[in-house]
Structure formats: C-alpha cells, structure tokens
Write a structure and sequence with these properties.
The chain is α/β, with parallel strands linked by helices. The protein has helices at residues 2-22, 69-77, 95-112, and strands spanning 35-36, 47-51, 57-59, 62-64, 84-89, 117-120, 123-124. The strands form 2 sheets. The chain has a 5-stranded mixed β-sheet with strand order 4-3-2-5-6, with helices on one face. Strands 1-7 form a two-stranded parallel ribbon. A hairpin with a 2-residue loop joins strand 3 (57-59) and strand 4. It is elongated and about 70 Å long. The termini are far apart.
Length: 125
C-alpha cells in the first residue's frame, strides 16, 4: 500500500517537472544595463568594441566606421568558434549603434557557422 502512494508521488513530480521545463525560455537575451551595482569579470575576452560619445567605433585599438566594423571584428576573433565581443559604449549613444555591432557579430556567426557572443560592458556604482 505504501509503494502505491510513493509511485503516485513520483508520477506527480514527473508531471510537475515536465510542465515547468516547458516554461523556461532557452533563447532569452541576457543584457547588462549601463550601470550595475555589482560587476562580474568575464574570463575570456577576445575583441573589444568601443563606441564613444561622438558615435565613433573603435575595434581594439583600430578606428572603424560601420562599413569596416564587420571585417575588423572578424579579424580580431580569428578562428575561435565561441569568442566574446565586449561592447563598451558611452551611455549617451543611441541603441542603433549598439545594434550595428550585434548585427556585425551575427553576420560573422552566420558566415562562419560560429557562436560568438556580444557582451555589453557596464560601469559599477
């Protein structure tokens, strides 16, 4: 008699976990906001893209425009399959400039079949 209640409990737990696992969104976009109270150091950083208050791009130490952004990022990444592109943007820069960097990395991912990520760097309070 006690084994039947135990099997009912296991069955109910199985149903619970099956339902809750479908509610998890695996494609959620994780963004760090321009200011953060606690900072997290990223272990691997392959390319850094800067956007200053004058809306000028710079890939590592090389000045860039929107046309040369993609080739410079691809050159900095090299043949790494899952590189991190750290984006350091002035907080006054419009979002479209940030999207330009993300689009460039997505185009590289599509072309090379890679899984590069863009991380928005923040300043801690």
């Amino acid at each position: 008699m006690s084994s039947s209640t135990m099997s009912d409990l296991v069955f109910l737990l199985l149903i619970f976990f099956m339902i809750t696992s479908t509610l998890i969104s695996p494609n959620a976009v994780k963004l760090l906001l321009p200011t953060a109270s606690n900072s997290k150091t990223m272990a691997k950083q392959n390319v850094t893209v800067y956007i200053d208050e004058n809306r000028q791009f710079q890939v590592d130490d090389t000045p860039a425009d929107s046309a040369s952004l993609r080739p410079l990022i691809a050159q900095g990444i090299g043949d790494i399959e899952d590189a991190c592109v750290v984006l350091r943007s002035d907080k006054t820069v419009p979002v479209q400039y940030v999207v330009s960097v993300i689009d460039a990395v997505n185009a590289i991912n599509e072309q090379q079949g890679s899984k590069h990520k863009v991380i928005l760097a923040t300043a801690s309070n």
